[in-house]
Amino acid sequence: MNNETPTPEESSNEAASRFETGKAHARRAADDLKAAATAKAQELRDNATAKAQEFRDSATAKAQEFRATAGAKASEWRDYAQDYYGTARDRAKTFQGDSEVYIRENPMRAVVTALGVGFVLGMLFRR
């Protein structure tokens, strides 16, 4: 064993060496921490981007579904309106034809009825 006491200069060099070693370890730890934080931030950014894309795709799919449903309903109502219009037009033509036949068969009765209806309407609108 060496019972020599270190000189102040050796103690100072050893302390400086330990300080530099600690400083290097701290720097490496800070760099590792910074890299881990950067990686985690990138991972979160990627997850957020993926979720946003997923939400966008879902919203687009729902919009297309609603558009298809609305188109089907519009087509259904259009068909219903066309059928109703066709039926009303046919009824009006039938009524017109029946009226013409009735007037040709009963001209006096038709004229008297028209005069009576005109008189009643004139009395109602006069008041």
In short:
The protein is mainly alpha-helical. The protein has a domain of 84 residues.
Secondary-structure map:
Layout: H1 8-105, H2 107-126
Helix pairs in contact: 1-2
Oligomeric state of shown chains = single chain
Give the biggest beta sheet: none
Q: Structural class given helices, strands, pairing?
A: mainly alpha
Radius of gyration: 49 Å
* Cα shape: rod-shaped
Residue share in helices? over 70%
| Tally of contiguous helical segments | 2
Unreliable spans are none
Task: Explain what the structure shows.
By secondary structure, the protein is mainly alpha-helical. α1 packs across α2. The longest helix has 98 residues. The mean pLDDT is 90.
Brief descriptors of the model:
mainly alpha; rod-shaped
